[in-house]
Amino acid sequence: MIQRFIELGEGYSDIYELIEIAKSNRHRLSGLFAFHTMKDGKALTSFVVVLHPTDPGDFQPLYICREGIPHPSVKITKRYELFVDLAKQLNQEIIHLDVKPSNFFADLQLYYQHLIGIMRMNRFIPPLQ
User: Strand, coil or helix: what is 77?
Assistant: First the structure.
């Protein structure tokens, strides 16, 4: 199985694409996530939509709007409310995780590997077989 993050942006106008991906793939929806972090002294959130793997192909996409939304404890934004509304519409719980910021890692791919490891360890996504 291949599990890969697909970055859409930082959650400004691309949040609408993330929401559309979840709605149009509700039959494949595996989970909704909010990754919270401190980056450059700012409390930020990334939204993630995880789909079940394709069949055939065994590719599991994890769509992300990375570190562009203020943490909801600092400021509730319309973008955050849209993601909460999405979860309600799709009858899903948002899974909240505190993670290291992407700039903690030397390379963005290492950051994504770290997140995949956390998600596998917590059994939010399946391990490699």
Answer: coil
